[in-house]
Write a structure and sequence with these properties.
It contains ten helices and 15 strands. Helix 4 packs parallel to helix 5. The protein has 365 residues and is an alpha/beta fold. Keywords: Kinase, Transferase.
């Protein structure tokens, strides 16, 4: 499949103005194939505020944010770039996204990540319902980002194209989250800064496979292997060796300060695909765990076989660190995928359904 180049700019609504949404506004504005026509906000104080101000562009875009869903759907946009928080309202957000495509609007979304792959996590009838909504509205839905997303689905699969034999594919995020601003994720979902005996839902059995299992299963689908069920989960949480203040939560000494977890897909009991996260709130802690080759965060792909391959991908914001650029690359993966998603078949799409996506038209002038 070749790159998709629309005949005229596609009309886009950005849904939310938070840590990802504000970068999405900037990304749509900068893209030659896209036109920003609307912005949704859940915050009453932001309603009526110009999108350029919300995205901190230093100029107005002539588009005022609104919290009126029907007003934005009435614009008949080609696509909604949905960047609202979904981790704490997974099924409600699926209803929202399904409603958009039923109404005839294509959607690219940063969540819920449970929709990165079609099979093995949600009931088949739920996926069929999304597909039917897409057929009714002749519209597509694609959920992606950086992780779960491009760094652990497209990137490792592209690297496997160099393989003669593949024994094991391992994808890792290794990062210091101290400057990551997302209090709900950091405190309530991960449990950072909470007593070690506290058990957030993320660490209950089956939840990691729900959140990151779709990545493992998508890699397996790309390699045409059938995984054993259930997937294997491994978790090691450690207390903070000293008190640190992060952007999202204060982490007192002795409270939860770091975690290493894996979701492993096996074939006949042999590990074939592993998703790993090593997440610190203090870059100096846990020196026995892997660290990035440089900086405070990276994605690492390791392929065991013939040949042996290792690839480390890092990013850093021009005006911030890797947590800032993490929001940018999440937004831009969605922004740049819009033409391909609009042109694709209706229903739920995964990374395996899309053509090559590049930053066409974004070279500085």
């Amino acid at each position: 499949m070749s790159q998709v180049i629309p005949e005229k700019p596609l009309r886009v609504v950005v849904w939310s103005t938070g840590t990802i949404g504000r970068h999405a506004i900037a990304g749509v504005d900068a893209h030659p194939d896209l036109e920003l026509v609307g912005v949704w906000t859940s915050t009453a104080a932001k309603s009526g505020v110009d999108a350029g101000e919300l995205a901190e562009l230093g100029r107005e875009l002539g588009i005022k944010a609104t919290n009126d869903r029907d007003e934005l759907i009435a614009l008949r946009p080609d696509c909604i770039l949905h960047a609202a928080m979904t981790d704490d309202r997974v099924f409600e957000s699926i209803d929202d996204l399904t409603g958009f495509i039923r109404d005839g609007v294509n959607v690219v979304s940063s969540g819920p990540v449970i929709l990165l792959h079609r099979t093995g996590t949600l009931p088949d009838e739920m996926i069929a319902g999304i597909d039917e909504a897409g057929r009714q509205g002749n519209a597509s839905l694609h959920v992606n980002g950086i992780d779960p997303g491009w760094a652990n689905d497209v990137l490792p699969l592209v690297l496997t194209s160099l393989s003669q034999r593949i024994d094991h594919v391992k994808v890792s995020e290794i990062a210091d989250y101290s400057t990551y601003y997302q209090p709900v994720v950091m405190k309530d979902i991960f449990g950072f800064g909470q007593p070690m005996e506290t058990r957030p839902m993320l660490w209950e059995g089956g939840i990691l496979s729900t959140a990151w299992g779709p990545v493992v299963r998508l890699i397996a689908a790309g390699l045409d292997i059938t995984l054993d069920e259930p997937l294997i989960e491994e978790v090691e949480r450690r207390p903070a060796p000293r008190t640190v203040k992060t952007y999202s939560v204060d982490v007192e000494e002795g409270t939860m300060g770091s975690v290493r977890f894996r979701v492993i897909g096996t074939v006949d009991g042999v590990p074939r695909v592993t998703l790993e996260h090593i997440t610190r709130t203090d870059a100096t802690s846990d020196p026995d765990w892997p660290t990035p080759s440089e900086g405070d965060g990276c994605y690492r792909v390791e392929i065991t076989g013939e040949p042996q391959m290792k690839l480390e991908f890092s990013h850093h914001g021009e005006h911030g660190d890797h947590n800032v650029s993490g929001m940018i690359v999440t937004a831009q993966r969605l922004v740049n995928a819009i033409p391909a998603v609009v042109a694709a078949k209706p229903g739920l799409l995964t990374a395996l359904d899309l053509p090559l996506i590049t930053g066409r038209g974004l070279v500085s002038k």
